Amino acid sequence: MPDTKDHETSGRQRALIGAGIAAAAAGAAFVINRKMKADGEEPISDAPEWTFRKRVEGEEGPLTGRSVTINRPRQEVYARWRDFTAFPQFMDNVRSVEKIDDKNSRWTIEAPAGTSVELVTEITADEPGSRIAWKSTEESQIATTGEVLFEDAAPGRGTVVRLVQSYAPPAGVIGKAVAKLFQREPYVQARRDLRRFKQLLETGEVTTNASPSGRTSESPTKARI
Amino acid sequence: MRALTWQGRHDVRVDTVPDPEIVNPRDAILQVTSTAICGSDLHLYDKYIPTLRAGDILGHEFMGEVVEVGAKSTLKKGQRVVVPFTISCGQCFFCEKLQFSACDNSNPAETADASELMMGHPMGAAFGFAHLTGGYAGGQAEYVRVPYSDVGPIVVPDHLDDDQVLFLSDILPTGWQAAENAGIEPGDTVAVWGCGPVGLFAIQSALILGAHRVIAIDHYPARLQLAKGLGAEILDYNEVDVREALDEMTGGIGPDAAIDCVGQESHGLTIDNLVDTVKAHTFLGTERPHALRQMLLAVRKGGRVSIPGVYGGFADKFPLGQMMEKGLTIKQGQTHVQKYTKPLLALIEQGKVDTTFLISHREPLEKAAEMYRHWHDEQNEFTKIVLKTPAVKGFVATASTKQHEPA
Question: Of A180, B174, B186, B201, which residue has the fewest beta carbons closer than 10 angstroms?
Answer without folding.
Answer: B186
